Fold:
Amino acid sequence: MATKKDVAKALLSIRAVFLRPNEPFTWASGIKSPIYCDNRLTLSYPEVRTLIDEALAEKAKELYPDVEMLMGTSTAGIAHAAIAADRLGIPMGYVRGSAKDHGRQNQIEGRCEPGTKVVVIEDLISTGGSVLECVDPLREVGADVLGIVSIFTYGMQRGLDRLAADNVENTSLCDLDTLVEVAVEEGYIEPQDKDRLLRFRDNPSDESWMAKAE
Structure:
């Protein structure tokens, strides 16, 4: 199975993750961020896509051997859930951010019967909000949500707290700590930037991380 470092190297190599501590991105909330993650790009690189989707399938089966169905988050988790489910030979589906306003007004796409043992596939965990919007509707229809397997997590405390409060477990193929370690080793960022990135993770609202070390 791919290690966290393998996944970090893959994400950095295709620029699915940008690290810009000196030119931060601005989130919709207004928060300045030294990192931008777009795991949708993994779909355009067959070698990286295979590495990640095989790891998602293997991790889901390893952690939850009784899994009967994978459910992707809309929209970034859908393709990865489909590929990983194909490798496992089990059904998949996905959960919309909200119910359709036409037709059968589905929020859950795919046949998910009450009691079905489900693992949710997500591309990115930050504050945990989007993945819980997938977990909660599944529980409402009686699915047994065993846990989440995601590609990458920032490891933000707010996200950890929200998942814990909802009694759902997430396991990520890679995390920010591993990514910044590899980024230093591979020359994507300077060694002194590692601490700045981790301080951002610990408190995104505190912009003191933006100050360079003297």
Remarks:
- The chain has a mean pLDDT of 93.
